[in-house]
Amino acid sequence: MNIPYADLKAEFTRVLHKLSFSEYKAALCAGIFADNSLDGVYSHGVNRFPVFVKYVREGLVQAHAEPVVAEQSGAIEKWDGQYGPGMYNATLAMNRAVALAKENGIGCVALKNTNHWMRGGTYGWQAANSGCIGICFSNTIANMPAWGGKEPRLGNNPLIIAVPRQGGHIVLDMAMSQYSYGKLQENSLRGSALKVPGGYDITGALTDDPDAIMASKRALPIGFWKGSGLSFVLDVLLTAITGGNSTARITASGGEAGLSQVFICLHRPEYEQALVDEIIAYSKSGEPVTAGEPVLYPGENTLATRRRNEAAGIPVDDRIWKSIREM
Amino acid sequence: MNIPYADLKAEFTRVLHKLSFSEYKAALCAGIFADNSLDGVYSHGVNRFPVFVKYVREGLVQAHAEPVVAEQSGAIEKWDGQYGPGMYNATLAMNRAVALAKENGIGCVALKNTNHWMRGGTYGWQAANSGCIGICFSNTIANMPAWGGKEPRLGNNPLIIAVPRQGGHIVLDMAMSQYSYGKLQENSLRGSALKVPGGYDITGALTDDPDAIMASKRALPIGFWKGSGLSFVLDVLLTAITGGNSTARITASGGEAGLSQVFICLHRPEYEQALVDEIIAYSKSGEPVTAGEPVLYPGENTLATRRRNEAAGIPVDDRIWKSIREM
Q1: Backbone φ/ψ region at A254: left (φ over 0), alpha (ψ -120 to 50), beta
Q2: Chain B environment of A262 (Cβ under 8 Å)
Q3: pLDDT recorded at residue A55
Q4: What predicted TM-score, i.e. pTM, was given to this entire model?
Q5: Cα separation of A190 and A255, whole Å?
């Protein structure tokens, strides 16, 4: 069934109020779950909401926690998220990074002891909407092997880079594994092979069979040794700057809580819009692999989905919607 | 034959003097070519030196140019490299980013109209040696298709991330294509297949045959659509911040000159060395794919090669060495 954005957000808000979220915090978190759904990222929108509620009930996410500034030096601040809601902490941190960048040209907030921020792209769009370039990244629980290893030792550590643009912001939001476990499961349920190789089977052969990858737990880092290196170094950056938990420590703790995140903003009087539009035009100027399917820039698809869901409502699984209504 | 580091550097310095480089600039550039060779990156060290000399002679690289500060705001500076030697401009830019970070916690130098910086990792090691986290990236001429396109429209835009560490800095230096054209050629000459798929053949099938990829010009971005997006957004960032040439403009100009580069540094009183060492230990703690071949962290291999070449001299191709001696 399709649910209008306003109804979805109202339901999320109602449930969060019931969980004793403050008015402001409930509205902010409900808005992010609704926005993620509107943009087509259902896995971190409506489909994830019940899991978030469970985490709050179990105390892994602390509804009343407020982030505190642990240290301030120049255009960098170190924050402690106190295990509060990840979306709330991340929004406040990115807001502050925007303010620091508007003051200093560039600014950074390093956040430890926070929780899953749902869709990382949220904070890229936020920075760009505030007129800043935004770069942010998070660590996660270990979910893929490092290059050369067989067992999961790296997170898929999403990296987000956003650049403001009048015709629609450019927002890259990518995790370091070729496919998330959610995507592997989706493909497995449909009984379909992956579009490109997504990991190794139990014998060590590269495969596009999602079940073989889930069995071996050997998901593929993007670009083999390269994505492995990038995921590793993002975790090192996060740990070295925040002083918070690394993927190693998060994994040892058993649950995916107490994450580390970094938010960097740059502010410029202008972002050379004409030159950027030239890059987009150039990327679209060649012959496409499939006729009628042009090259897309990061964020272009999101914007198209947003327009579609604004007009037609957000597609929601009946059972999930029922479970939320009954909360 | 193996050449001691000091002899290699002396030869480079002699040739650059002859090309009317100032004493300081000749020593700096010769040092970088020698260091890159020492670290095993011969493609951007001794093997590249004759090409650099050619570029200087042809005026694509301006030996006497000095970078100028075009704009200053807070902890960001915009520089114009005036088409000077890329290694010289990049070293000065990273030095300034280090100084800005030591003043403000974080700093950025955006450099336009510069030239090829040879090995990007050079500036990561430089930042880490100066006690800073360094992040830098460059655009290049178009050398791979965007995801969904058939013709080269993206550069392989290297990204470097370095974190200081007492036991050896962590330095990631990765281009956005799975293999460079240099690597494809190396494999082609040896008649060997690539270790992993590196692009598409003329029929659009994924292949590990280097000749098939050079024929189709369809090199693979790391992680398929993901590396394509990351390469695109790095070029957008570079252009939006520096106001300089994008990959589109560099490609249109015909030669690979007038590049754009960004240097970001972060400075912290400490980099949580114990926690970082824990990440390294964790990544090495699983069962390796090949017994006796442990997981390596980015930079570990470089350091091992450096030690080897310090002891035994730098392996240099006889003909290349002869051609340099005759310059």
Answers
A1: left
A2: none
A3: 95
A4: 0.97
A5: 29
Residue B181: per-residue pLDDT: 86
Q: Which tokens is A129 given?
A: 């909407």
Q: What is the pLDDT of residues A284-307, one digit of tens each?
A: 999 999 999 999 999 999 999 999
- The amino acid sitting at B188 is S
User: Domain A66-176+223-271 carries which CATH code?
Assistant: 3.30.1370.60
Answer for the pair B167, B274: CB distance below 8 angstroms, yes or no. no
Beta-strand pair B106-114/B76-80: parallel
What ipTM, to 2 d.p.?
A: 0.97
What 8-state DSSP symbol labels residue B64?
A: T
B294: chain A residues, CB-CB within 8 Å: 148
- CB-closest option in A226, A286, A290 to B222: A226
Do residue A236 and residue B163 have CB atoms under 8 angstroms apart?
yes
- Catalytic residue numbers of B, as ranges: 44
Q: Which residues of B touch A302 (CB under 8 A)?
A: none
DSSP B226-277: HHHHHHHHHHHHHHHHH----HHHHHHHSSS-SEEEEEEEE--S---HHHHH
Find, in chain B, the residue whose alpha carbon is nearest to that of A235.
B279
What are the extents of the domains in chain A?
66-176+223-271, 178-220
Which member of B161, B197, B240 has the closest CB to residue A133? B240
Which among A76, A204, A272 is the nearest to B106, CB-wise? A76
Point out which residues pair with A281 in neighbouring strands: none
Return phi, psi of residue B305, to 5°. Answer: -65, -40
Q: pLDDT digits over B117-130, tens only? A: 999 999 999 999 99
Tokens of A31: 């808005």
Determine what percent of chain B is predicted with pLDDT higher than 70. 100
Q: Answer whether B105 sits within 8 Å of A75, measured CB to CB.
A: yes
φ, ψ of residue B221 to 5 degrees: the values are -70, 145
Considering the domain B65-176+223-271, what is its CATH architecture?
2-Layer Sandwich (3.30)
- Residue B264 CA to residue B96 CA, distance in Å, equals 10
In chain B, residues with a C-beta closer than 8 Å to the C-beta of A133 are 237, 240-241
Whether residue B146 and residue A286 make contact (CB cut-off 8 A), yes or no, is yes
CATH 3.30.60.50 assigned to domain A178-220? The reply is yes
Any catalytic annotation for residue A116? no
* Angle ∠(A170,A172,A175) on CA atoms, nearest 5: 175
